[in-house]
Write a structure and sequence with these properties.
The protein has 563 residues and is mainly β. Helices cover 5% and strands 35% of the residues. A seven-stranded mixed sheet has the order 15-14-17-12-9-10-19, with no helix packed on it. A six-stranded mixed sheet has the order 22-21-24-29-26-27, with no helix packed on it. The protein has a five-stranded mixed sheet with strand order 11-20-18-13-16, with no helix packed on it. Bound molecules: 2-acetamido-2-deoxy-beta-D-glucopyranose (NAG) (8 copies) and copper (II) ion. One 2-acetamido-2-deoxy-beta-D-glucopyranose is lined by residues 92, 94, 134-135. InterPro entries: Cu-oxidase-like_N (IPR011707), Cu-oxidase_2nd (IPR001117), Cu-oxidase_C (IPR011706), Cu-oxidase_fam (IPR045087), Cu_oxidase_CS (IPR033138), Cu_oxidase_Cu_BS (IPR002355), Cupredoxin (IPR008972).
Amino acid sequence: MQWYNCLLLLPATLASLLPCDSTNGGSLLGTLDAKPLTLHRQREPPQTRHFTFELTRKTLNPDGVTREFLVVNGEYPGPTIEANLGDTISVTVINNIDSPKEGTSIHWHGLPQRDTKWADGVPSLTQCPIAAGSNFTYTFKAEVAGTTWWHAHFTAQYTDGLFGGLIIHGSQYAEQYDIDLGPIHLHDTYHIDYVSYLLPVYNIPPVFIPVDTNLINGRGPFNCSLDTHGSNCKPNSTEPAKFRFQPGKKHLLRLINTGGATIQHFSIDDHELTVIANDFTPVQPYKTNVATLGIGQRTDVIVEAKGKEGDAVWMRSEIDQPCVNGTVWQPNATAIVYYTNADETRIPNTKRHDWKTDGCLNDPLDIAQPIKKRSVPTPDLVEQIDIRGGKNASGNLVYFVNGSQFRANFSSTPLLQAASNGITEYPDHPEYNIYNFGDAKNVRIVVYNHFPNPHTMHLHGHEEFWILATGMGEWDGTITQEANPQRRDSAQMRAAWGPDQPSHLVIQFVADNPGVWSLHCHFIIHISAGLYMSFIEQPEQIKEGAYEDVMHQTEVPELDIPR
Ligand SMILES: *[C@@H]1O[C@H](CO)[C@@H](O)[C@H](O)[C@H]1NC(C)=O
Ligand SMILES: *[C@@H]1O[C@H](CO)[C@@H](O)[C@H](O)[C@H]1NC(C)=O
Ligand SMILES: *[C@@H]1O[C@H](CO)[C@@H](O)[C@H](O)[C@H]1NC(C)=O
Ligand SMILES: *[C@@H]1O[C@H](CO)[C@@H](O)[C@H](O)[C@H]1NC(C)=O
Ligand SMILES: *[C@@H]1O[C@H](CO)[C@@H](O)[C@H](O)[C@H]1NC(C)=O
Ligand SMILES: *[C@@H]1O[C@H](CO)[C@@H](O)[C@H](O)[C@H]1NC(C)=O
Ligand SMILES: *[C@@H]1O[C@H](CO)[C@@H](O)[C@H](O)[C@H]1NC(C)=O
Ligand SMILES: *[C@@H]1O[C@H](CO)[C@@H](O)[C@H](O)[C@H]1NC(C)=O
Ligand SMILES: [Cu+2]
């Protein structure tokens, strides 16, 4: 098979290849036309960087299977936001999603939104959904340097394409690499839309629809004989993602798991990865062959190009199948790395690095040292939460956080707006799963998982939390690497081994950011089934603090969709 560049016209002999505009809406990510990121080298003064995101439906075929996606500015994956530390980012989101119309909202994963707590993008908590036909501008500080992503936070919309990279350049590791290859999205994708994917989970008994293809930057040909969506599948019509290496140079790869249901193991044949940050937290560089990322997690790696001119090697991202309850048709994504002067039609012939699944966890907690040492203060609030699965009153299989299945009300006053008016208690709405943490300064949360699924727990409002421990059974109080535990914004926890053998994850954070913040699993089925809680941090300061009344939107169409 031959490959062609995204922007080149299709030669007649390659007519079976779909053009890049059809596969990925013209996104250059993962094509040889993608440009390395250079903003940080330009040393510009702090400024406001404006972006306009137009959200629409669009028919695409990233893996050769044609279906309707939800996209920003037509692109799949969505556009990359790039800024320097200290800049202001302003994004006007225009909701032109039609037939049917849907509300939306965009979350800026990992950014604490200090002083802009209304810009966190969580419908029912920090804003009303942005109604179809209207727009909303998010303005916030590029306040933490590193790699993250933006994604729709309105049910599981992001898995239909509403996601993209968010890169904030700082000085912290700019000197460690020569070339910034930008975001590398590792993501599962589905041949049906997110509503059709989620709703069968609530059948009695539940139906779990297979994950279809694992993609790198939205690319990766699907083998049409694998599933039942054959009629929309055009064999050998798309290309894998492609990247360029320069021999002897150090390349920064910003890995992001932007999927909805799977854990990724990333590697490059014949090359070693040097991990320099997990989520927003820089760590003492350590070497590994394989980087493991749970949903929402990022790992910045430096890859020294030790090959020679003309080489071609596979880049891989493999889904950890035992961590998925169900079928993944095509779990092994491949992309190609071409060295300078390589024949860019060449198919590599290199061998993969092996990895072993270990309870769906990241690298062991004691493998890395955060560069900025921070020991754990004594907590003044310790909360335990218990995650269980089971049937709710109507017999659907759902999750309970401390006995309560989370349900959002997209039509009611956002809870942050209510908190700014002094309302912090919801005795009539246990389904909001909202806790008032008062003026506690150091909050420790001990999470017990009693259900046989692993989870990726993500905390809003804080660029990092400490991970004190993760393991099986009751936590015995031991803190891993006590003088300087791992910190990040999304953490893995194991599946329970049985009713009496829960798994645990213990996190702690400094509660110095007044607002209403969520702690939830990032698996789309789990969030949608209720594995979600929120807490009010420093309610008195919310009342006193600056507050922008930006939440009112016109009516949200009533849709029968999971939330
Ligand atoms: C956003 O909506 C307002 C109010 O309807 C309108 O005046 C404005 O032109 C819209 N802006 C954009 C960029 O669509
Ligand atoms: C595609 O899938 C079919 C069915 O599993 C298999 O027989 C075939 O070898 C696969 N083709 C490729 C190129 O992997
Ligand atoms: C697609 O590619 C595979 C593997 O190269 C090949 O076996 C198959 O015949 C091709 N299918 C079509 C329809 O061209
Ligand atoms: C994915 O890769 C793993 C490791 O090489 C292999 O065991 C597995 O069979 C592959 N799965 C598929 C569906 O190709
Ligand atoms: C959740 O339930 C546990 C066990 O019943 C209880 O100790 C804990 O206080 C509850 N958590 C919260 C945040 O209320
Ligand atoms: C049970 O959960 C399902 C799925 O979220 C929901 O549609 C249904 O309304 C819930 N039933 C009750 C009684 O809350
Ligand atoms: C959601 O909030 C609206 C507005 O307050 C209210 O009319 C409606 O009954 C609420 N729905 C549920 C399920 O509580
Ligand atoms: C896995 O899926 C099966 C149905 O496919 C279901 O019965 C079972 O409860 C699921 N297990 C978990 C842990 O979700
Ligand atoms: Cu989960």
